[in-house]
Write a structure and sequence with these properties.
Elements (H helix, E strand, L loop, with lengths): L33 H27 L3 H11 L6 E10 L3 E10 L3 E8 L2 E8 L2 E4 L2 E2 L2 H14 L3 H5 L5 E7 L5 E10 L2 E8 L5 E10 L2 E15 L2 E11 L2 E14 L41
Antiparallel strand pairs: 1-2, 1-13, 2-3, 3-4, 4-5, 5-6, 7-8, 8-9, 9-10, 10-11, 11-12, 12-13
Length: 297
């Protein structure tokens, strides 16, 4: 092929033959095949889409400034285990002494002793029980949500890159609340409301999807105190589907280095420590919806 002739396709190994240096100063355009051009365009589009997805993911992640506030207030180091003792007041069942145990990352026990009887819920990894009977999927999700609330905010901090910024909203006093969402597992989301002025988590919402239904369980926190350098809320107000179902008062909390796995056996009865006041210390809630809808206390 001579320089200046009409080029359709030049194999890569023959390009040198048609370089301008071999054409006595003439400019010869190098034409690629249609398949090569399409491949180049496809690769470019993939790169652009990848860049856009990365940018959207960064924009969607909760603000770093809010994370810094939570770390400063609650501490960056998550406790390995937590014990809460107290009482629960349910608008449907009355008062009952309560013991909560949590061991990172997925051990949880919630035991309430009412005058009418005892209720025990246990979570060990993917398995959950009410009393000593395996929990159905909806009840298991409710127990997962209970465990997640006890582990706030360290469970959210540990998965900050997976959080979603849900914007801001004012509270009843006009304070700005930052909404941060974390998917605990498929069909179960946790949303925390952080007061931008103080950095405190003043509300949490669990959104559970069961089939075509969506159920919301909310907790409002107040009376913030400090224990072992970590902040916690001493009072809780519980809501289910918008209905006020009870309130809680935490009097004693322990951040521990360990708890034995045997403490989370579904057949075990956990006794409150001797130093715990005999009066109800932590109040919690029953909701007054259909019995088929799980409670979160």
């Amino acid at each position: 092929m001579r320089c200046g002739s009409k080029l359709k396709h030049i194999p890569v190994h023959n390009l040198k033959r048609y370089h301008p240096a071999h054409c006595k100063g003439q400019f010869v355009p190098l034409v690629v095949s249609e398949s090569q051009a399409l491949k180049s365009i496809f690769v470019t589009l993939l790169w652009v889409l990848s860049a856009l997805q990365c940018a959207m993911a960064v924009a969607d992640t909760a603000p770093q400034a809010v994370r810094d506030q939570l770390v400063a207030l609650y501490g960056a180091q998550a406790p390995l285990a937590i014990r809460q003792t107290g009482s629960t007041t349910s608008f449907s069942r009355g008062e009952g002494a309560l013991v909560r145990l949590f061991k990172s990352p997925d051990r949880f026990r919630n035991e309430i002793t009412y005058s009418s009887g005892q209720e025990v819920r246990t979570l060990v990894g993917p398995l959950a029980w009410q009393q000593s009977k395996p929990a159905n999927p909806a009840l298991r999700s409710a127990i997962v949500l209970q465990a997640a609330r006890v582990a706030l905010p360290w469970n959210v901090l540990a998965r900050w890159s997976e959080t979603h910024d849900r914007g801001t909203e004012p509270d009843d006093s006009g304070n700005t609340l930052q909404l941060i969402e974390l998917e605990l597992e498929p069909n179960l989301k946790l949303v925390i409301h952080v007061d931008r002025a103080s950095g405190r988590i003043v509300r949490s919402r669990g959104v559970m999807e069961v089939g075509t239904r969506s159920m919301e369980f909310a907790t409002r926190y107040s009376d913030f105190r400090s224990q072992s350098g970590r902040v916690y809320a001493a009072r809780e107000q519980q809501f289910a589907a918008g209905q006020h179902t009870g309130y809680s008062v935490i009097e004693h909390i322990e951040f521990l280095d360990a708890l034995p796995d045997s403490a989370f056996a579904p057949w075990l009865q956990v006794q409150a420590p001797a130093h715990t006041s005999p009066r109800i210390l932590l109040t919690k809630v029953d909701h007054v919806l259909s019995p088929r809808i799980p409670e979160t206390r």
